[in-house]
Structures are given as structure tokens and as C-alpha cells.
């Protein structure tokens, strides 16, 4: 019996400061998810992406429609993963602009069927519903498969102040759901980021963009 294929988790952290509580939450979710996969004897690795490192490239991409190689590599890392952990701070009752900018440069169909563990953090628990009324609908619109458990962390959670549902328990529950979702899916196959069909659409080429020259 062959060993199970290694799975890869893409982790997107949209924190603005360094260090940030957004990254802290992303790291906890990542560690718990990898542990839950190991418990199922599924080897896995994680690629953690700090969006703040690509903020200027994201802006330029939105303005020009082109991604520089570093950003293109990040995009390919996310869309070719077996699952996504996406963590954003909550600003003005919703996800951050940096987080949304990254989502906006992805192909609308790139995350179809991908399990997504949603994480969010803010200073007060009053923003906890943002996961369900703002972030989850975003991934549902993209035809991804957001997990039923999202993990919100307020400032008080880091001190263990939530006696009803401690942060660690929520993290572990979400990680187990992610591991189960990954186990149900076939391993992702890597695509060639330089194949025009990958970013222009199947059956299309640069000739199509130049007036259909290559379609003859």
C-alpha cells in the first residue's frame, strides 16, 4: 500500500503590523491543522504568506492587471494548495482592505471546492459575527468550501478570558474540520503557472487577446 500523498496548506495572513495578532492566530491555526492531519497519517506542509509584504505589488496589480513574479508566485501557491487558512483583522465590521485586495486579484474560479478555514481577530468580541456575515459569504461567492467553524479571536482571548469557549478549543475544532475536509479530497495537482490556459482560461491564448490570431 502506497503512502498517502503529501498535502499542502496555504496560509494567508492579512495583518498590518509586525508582529501582529493576526499572524499569531494564523500560526496557531496552522500548527493545529498540521497536527490534526498527522493524526490521520496524512503528511502535510504549510506555506505562510504575509500579505503586508506584497501590499505594493497588490496595488500595482489592481491598477495594471499584471502581477510581478513575486506576487504571481504567491497567487500560484494559494490556488494550487489543498486547503487555505485565511486570517484577517476586522476593520469597520468587515475584512481588511489588504485582505480583499488579495482576493480581488485571484481568478474567480481559482478556489472552487477548496476547503477554507476562516480566522479573524479584533480588539473586541463585538466583531465576532463578521466571520459569518462578511467573510464566509465572500468565499461562498468564490465557490470555495468554507468550514462550518470559523475562529475569531478578541484581545481578551489571548489571555484565556473566554470561559465559555476558550480560543484553544475553537482552534482545535476548526483544525479537525480542516483535516477531515482535506482527507476527503483528492490531492491537488500542480499546474504550470506559465501555461496560458492557467491564467487566460482553457483554450485561450495571447492570440485571442490580440484579435483571435491563434484561433485560426
Outline of the structure:
With 216 residues, the chain is α/β, with parallel strands linked by helices.
Attribute tags:
216 residues; single chain; alpha/beta; 41% helix; 7-stranded mixed β-sheet; globular; Rossmann fold; disordered C terminus
What does this structure look like?
This protein is an alpha/beta fold and 216 residues long. It contains 8 helices and 7 strands, in the order βαβααββαβαββααα. It has helices at residues 21-39, 55-64, 69-79, 97-105, 130-141, 167-184, 196-200, 206-209; strands at residues 7-13, 44-50, 83-91, 94-95, 115-122, 145-146, 151-154. Strands 1, 2, 3, 4, 5, 6 and 7 form a 7-stranded mixed sheet that branches. It is globular.
Give the helix level as a range of percent. Answer: 40-55%
CATH-defined topology? Rossmann fold
Order of SSEs: EHEHHEEHEHEEHHH
- Spatial separation of the terminal alpha carbons: 48 Å
Query: Rg, please?
Result: 18 Å
CATH architecture: 3-Layer(aba) Sandwich
What's the pLDDT, averaged over the residues? 87
CATH class bucket: Alpha Beta
Topology readout:
Layout: E1 7-13, H1 21-39, E2 44-50, H2 55-64, H3 69-79, E3 83-91, E4 94-95, H4 97-105, E5 115-122, H5 130-141, E6 145-146, E7 151-154, H6 167-184, H7 196-200, H8 206-209
